[in-house]
């Protein structure tokens, strides 16, 4: 992990996420990239205006850059991290973030779960959907009550064994850096299906995962998200990892409003999401 992007709207919740981004950068000796997104001017100035369209954008960019530095300064007094500041002007927050992520070839996005306003939330609503669906790297969502103290117990929501094995092995170096255990949970909705598939599932995933501090479990329940929340609590997890795939994963949970439910139940547990684009990324 070489580059970590932290997008901010300068809210208190964003500051919580910044503490995680700094802690991760210190652990992995990674560059911290602080990002602010500004609005594109909706109307070009008239010919009588003293400033050109590009001049307005330049001044807005300089203002946001100064604001970024002021926002970050209190958090960076005791660290010698490599830090860079990026400002993007875009019509949507998510597209601005993705623009910076793609340009910098970042390895991780770390953002808060609530924003400063309804229109510019970082990880709720349409912005979240777009990030978790299209980001070319994992997205780490930090709840407002979370406190960075490393990671000891990571839960992975298992739903697609070949992809599960790949993602768990991708998460393994992250877990190893903190000496964390990875626990995978697969929820069968009906007892007969679990009886028929449990042994093959456990054998396949355990043979494919190379990380030694790993275990896999199965449960039977018609309510997958509630069972997952219960499992997170049972394992005292401090990180939940999910895979977003078409019509399933986080997108399915969003349609049911379940990500908020996760945050309500487990208010201090960060959530890391992978999608197909993140899996295809090579460094």
Could you characterize the architecture of this molecule?
The protein is an alpha/beta fold and 283 residues long. It has helices at residues 12-28, 53-72, 93-104, 125-134, 161-178, 191-208, 224-234, 249-255, 258-265, 276-280, and strands at residues 3-7, 31-38, 83-89, 108-112, 139-142, 153-158, 181-188, 214-220, 239-243, 271-274. The termini are close together.
Gyration radius over CA: 20 Å
| Separation, N- and C-terminal Cα atoms | 9 Å
Strand neighbour order, sheet with most strands: 3-2-1-4-5-10-9-6-7-8
Shape summary = elongated
Share in β-strands: 15-25%
Number of helices: 10
Domain UspA: 1-143
Organism: Membranihabitans marinus
Family: Belongs to the universal stress protein A family.
InterPro entries: Rossmann-like_a/b/a_fold, Universal_stress_UspA, UspA
Helix and strand layout, with pairings?
Elements: E1 3-7, H1 12-28, E2 31-38, H2 53-72, E3 83-89, H3 93-104, E4 108-112, H4 125-134, E5 139-142, E6 153-158, H5 161-178, E7 181-188, H6 191-208, E8 214-220, H7 224-234, E9 239-243, H8 249-255, H9 258-265, E10 271-274, H10 276-280
Parallel strand pairs: 1-2, 1-4, 2-3, 4-5, 6-7, 6-9, 7-8, 9-10
Antiparallel strand pairs: 5-10
Quick structural overview:
With 283 residues, the chain is an alpha/beta fold. It contains 10 helices and 10 strands.
Features:
alpha/beta; Rossmann fold; 2 domains; 10 helices; Universal stress protein; Universal_stress_UspA; UspA; Rossmann-like_a/b/a_fold
